[in-house]
Amino acid sequence: MRKVSIWEVLFVPLFFLLIFYPILAILGNVTLDGMAKTFGDPVFWDAVKNTLGTAFCAALLGVLMALGFAYFYIFHPGTVIYRIADFMNDLPIALPHTVAGLALLLAFGRNMFGFAGPTGLAFTLVAVILAMFFVSYPLAARTIASSAEEIDRELINVARSLGDSPPRAYRRIVIPLLGEAIFSAFVLGFSRSLSEFAAVIMFGGNVPGMTMVLASYVFTKVEEGEVSMAVTASAFCILLSLLLVLFLRLEVKFRARSKRTA
Amino acid sequence: MLEARELHKSFDDRHVLKGVTFGVGPGEIRVLIGLNGCGKTTLQRIITGILEPDSGSIRIGGEEITALPPEERQLGYVPQNTGLFPHLSVRENILYSLKNGRGSVESFHGMVELLGLETYLDLKPKQLSGGYRSRVSLARALASSPRAMLLDEPITEVDRAKKEFVLPLFRETLLGLKIPVLYITHDPWEAGEIGTSFSIMKGGVMSPISSPEEAFAVIRQEARDSGE
């Protein structure tokens, strides 16, 4: 008889209790009444639209910034700006997201950005995008920089000997070779943005139909005592996340298969 | 003429190049032989412009290029692992410099014919053997109409039997262009097959020698002294 390891004994029940069971608790509590109320609520669909649109913009901005960071990593790794950027990359991961939201509020609120509107950039969709970007950018930067690290520097040296300036070599050689990393960075940034709540609510607010996103919709419904609607919206979030994870997994598998057959 | 005068380079307290001086004339293939770790790669990186020397100068055709970035040197470079761009086809690799205003479609066709690459143009580098990858790398550098060539152990990944076929082809192609060629290798046999003149790198200094056999004797002695 096979000897059972202590790790198996610990892992299996704890995984089901702490990860699987809470997810199941949401899905198991979805009711027809809750579904009818939630899906019939135009504010819910506004929150879905806001969430998807702002997460898409934040992920796109994250990838662009991450590509800029990787450029510094390849061509100017010894500079002060690279070192600061590298150090600051980990900051949003360690920082409480309420602090991140407050920082954005102070930086882009009416005190500093009063010219942009009565509240500055705060409590607008731009604020939601910036809050999502602030917390998701480090993931994109780390994903792209770790792939850039694997690119053979000799390819860049050769491209330059053939007449490419550093930005041109980056565009013609590095970016095409970072294709997979760019895609992964986008999906990770998008997923992280979808789940952001604290920074978004602090800086973007929670204005129904304007800056409310799915995470804040769930919070609002719990506060209002509409638990069945909160549960339905949460189940919707879970399905969305599962779809994203599945998409990422399939993409990785597809690329691995293409590489094997090429 | 490709010339270097009194090149010095140190990394922290390690003095790697101690006054490297040489000159390679048009139509000459100067082979630089040296053991691993003797400073060959540092010299290659300084000539291509990736590294700056602490002091000294490099000239091509009388023009001082020491302070120029790699893209302005017009120096053809074939690296050790061929450095072919994996996402581009053989054709796109060889035509790469054309978008930077270097070379011409005529020079592309000339190199493709000379190096026997006609049937491989639509393949990706990973679909080629080591010997053909080396040919493509050479064709790409030559198609950019360089003023001088630098080859850094360009056929390391080719086995000996194929080297016997590839080296004469490389030699004939390079000599036909009548430009200065610096060819770096640690293999005295390879040096004898391709070179028209020879130098050895030892202790951070480059000295001319009469034959690869002489280099081999020096290297053997050095290996014996270091107990390898």
What can be said about the biggest beta sheet of chain A?
none
Separation of termini of chain B?
A: 37 Å
Compute the average pLDDT of chain B.
88
Residue share in helix of chain B: 25-40%
What can you tell me about this protein's structure?
The complex is a heterodimer of chains A (262) and B (228). Chain A has a domain at 41-214: MetI-like (MetI-like fold), CATH 1.10.3720. Chain A contains 14 helices and no strands. Chain A has helices at 6-28, 32-39, 42-75, 80-89, 91-94, 97-108, 110-113, 125-150, 153-161, 166-177, 179-195, 198-203, 214-223, 227-261. The model of chain A has no long low-confidence stretch (mean pLDDT 91). Chain B has helices at residues 40-48, 90-94, 105-114, 130-143, 160-177, 188-194, 212-225; strands spanning 2-11, 14-24, 29-33, 55-60, 63-64, 75-78, 148-152, 181-185, 197-202, 205-209. Chain B has 228 residues and is α/β, with parallel strands linked by helices. The longest helix of chain B has 18 residues, at 160-177. Chains A and B meet through helix 9 and helix 10 of A and strand 6 of B.
Short description:
The complex is a heterodimer of chains A (262) and B (228). Chain A is an all-alpha fold and 262 residues long.
Question: Which SSEs are present, and which pair or pack?
Answer:
The complex is a heterodimer of chains A (262) and B (228).
Chain A: H1 6-28, H2 32-39, H3 42-75, H4 80-89, H5 91-94, H6 97-108, H7 110-113, H8 125-150, H9 153-161, H10 166-177, H11 179-195, H12 198-203, H13 214-223, H14 227-261
Helix pairs in contact in A: 2-14, 3-8, 3-11, 6-8, 8-11, 9-10, 11-14, 13-14
Chain B: E1 2-11, E2 14-24, E3 29-33, H1 40-48, E4 55-60, E5 63-64, E6 75-78, H2 90-94, H3 105-114, H4 130-143, E7 148-152, H5 160-177, E8 181-185, H6 188-194, E9 197-202, E10 205-209, H7 212-225
Parallel strand pairs in B: 3-8, 3-9, 6-7, 7-8
Antiparallel strand pairs in B: 1-2, 1-4, 4-5, 9-10
Helix pairs in contact in B: 3-4, 6-7
